[in-house]
Specification:
The chain contains 17 helices and 20 strands. It is of the alpha/beta class. The protein has two domains: 406 residues, Glycosidases (TIM Barrel, Alpha-Beta Barrel); 70 residues, Immunoglobulin-like, CATH 2.60.40.1180. The protein has an eight-stranded parallel beta barrel with strand order 1-2-5-8-9-10-11-12, surrounded by four helices. It has a six-stranded antiparallel beta sheet with strand order 13-14-15-20-17-18, with helices on one face. Strands 3-4 form a two-stranded antiparallel sheet.
């Protein structure tokens, strides 16, 4: 639908790359004063961090009754206990008031009662200003302090970036209408499907990356947050809807400022090529696990999935695995609705396969309701079974080489098993071994594993000496982790 002037874009990219490099060199002293969290160019990002990281999606608005940066940052040391090494902040920008969503297809402006209108805060993905902070979340000083606190606790901070569309009262709508997609009548449109029908995202205006000036303006806006706030990367919303060659231009330019961690909300392998994004979503695995928990898919389907990703992705490509996120929780259901009795089994699997596990705000406290998306809500804060589970899994992920999941991941080896309901695999690296066994059925299962050696339970310490003839029992939807 959108054609690309490749030669022109590459030419402009080179020119602007030289300009931005010159600016950075000449203005480095000013930059170090502006970025109160540290000098851009210095970073905590390294291969070791990526091998052992848990990523945490911070829904600042819903994380606390206050819904502010300051309320959230008090718990950063708590998140460190859960193995969190990357903080992903959901969009922090002001939210458009024009065509602000209330519920369903209803806009706030269509609600007759003024008091009712006040409770709808809109979608954070309808960005009103790429250069500003939503005042409901806090101030620039608050954000600087949050990032500084995260860095002191050994965590990267990445911002949720919405490059595919803007809110309708974003300044670009009036100042640069040429940045947007237009219909046959010359009107700016909301995002459209390939057949020209609406995607249903009526509260946002679709950006058109045929325009080279938009590409540079968007990259400038992203660079602003790296240079001024010393952020460590971006989670890019619907990254697959934005042309890959824009990401190639933007990411390479941004990484001239400092090394950045880039997460794409997408699955396409090409987004991981040529040193573009570091990690994509493991969407297929999420849906497959949900179906396995409902008895609609089997362990054999999981094996087929693993074989498939081994052909689609390069060995150093990273996938993010999860049982929840803001979309899944608000629109599909809680982990308990999605996975039922298998929720803990599914969580353990996301921490033990090759890749990086995601923890969404509230999961650590047993979030048992769907967070409101357009209104203020709040998560529970009482520690219980879930907190202890994620603390143990996070500690194992942080410290045990056989769970490395970054650019140099531990091997994944499917082990022979006598029971088709049981998934058994080994992770191995540097002489360290971990065995996962999970019962993907609603009945107690007996099985034998085709391996040998002395291991102990990662959580209880109980020793086991594997023998191919030894029978093991697992209760319904239960799992075991053994380390050597």
């Amino acid at each position: 639908m959108k054609s690309l002037g490749t030669k022109t874009i590459h030419h402009l990219s080179g020119i602007f790359g030289l300009i931005i490099t010159a600016i950075l060199v000449s203005g480095c002293s000013t930059q170090s004063q502006t970025a109160q969290t540290g000098t851009p160019g210095k970073t905590l990002l390294n291969d070791s961090l990526l091998e052992t990281a848990v990523i945490y999606e911070a829904n600042i608005r819903q994380y606390s009754p206050q819904g502010t940066f300051r309320a959230f940052m008090r718990d950063i040391p708590v998140l460190k206990q859960l193995g969190v090494k990357i903080l992903w902040l959901m969009p922090i920008h002001p939210i458009s008031k024009e065509r602000r969503k209330a519920t369903g297809d209803l806009f706030v402006s269509q609600i007759p009662n003024p008091a009712q209108r006040q409770k709808y805060l809109g979608s954070p993905y309808a960005v009103a200003d790429y250069y500003a902070i939503n005042p409901n979340l806090g101030t620039e000083a608050d954000l600087h302090e949050l990032i500084r606190t995260a860095h002191q606790n050994g965590m990267l901070v990445i911002l949720d970036w919405v490059a595919n569309h803007t809110g309708w009262d974003n300044p670009w709508v009036k100042e640069h209408p040429e940045y947007y997609t237009h219909n046959a009548r010359g009107e700016i449109t909301d995002p459209l499907n390939p057949d020209g029908t609406s995607k249903g995202w009526k509260d946002v205006a679709d950006l058109n990356y045929d325009n080279p000036r938009l590409r540079n303006a968007m990259t400038d806006a992203m660079a602003y947050w790296v240079k001024k706030f010393d952020i460590d990367g971006f989670r890019c919303d619907v990254a697959g809807e934005v042309p890959v060659d824009f990401w190639r231009q933007a990411i390479h330019r941004l990484r001239r400022i400092k090394p950045l961690f880039m997460l794409a909300e997408a699955w396409e392998p090409e987004l991981l090529r040529d040193s573009l994004f570091d990690m994509c979503y493991g969407w297929e695995a999420h849906f497959l696990l949900a179906d396995m928990a409902k008895g609609r898919k089997t362990v054999e389907d999981w094996d087929n999935y693993i074989r498939k990703i081994d052909t689609l992705y390069e060995p150093d490509d990273m996938l993010m695995y999860f049982t929840s996120n803001h979309d899944e929780n608000s629109w599909k259901g809680t982990v308990y609705e999605t996975f039922g009795d298998a929720w803990e089994l599914a969580a353990a699997l996301t921490y033990t396969v090759k890749g990086m596990p995601l923890l969404y705000s509230g999961q650590e406290y047993g979030l048992a309701h769907r967070l409101k998306f357009f209104e203020k809500d709040s998560i529970p804060k009482k520690r219980g079974r879930e907190f202890e589970l994620y603390r143990k899994l996070g500690r194992l992920k942080n410290t045990y080489p056989a769970l490395h999941g970054g650019k140099h991941p531990a091997d994944y080896i499917r082990l022979g098993c006598t029971n088709p309901n049981i998934l058994v695999f080994e992770r191995k690296k540097g002489g360290k071994r971990l065995i996962f066994a999970g019962n993907f059925s609603g009945q107690t299962q007996t099985f034998r594993v085709q391996t040998t050696g002395k291991f102990h339970d990662a959580f209880t310490g109980q020793e086991i000496d594997f023998d191919p003839q030894m029978e093991i029992n697992l209760k319904p939807w239960n799992y075991r982790l053994w380390i050597q």
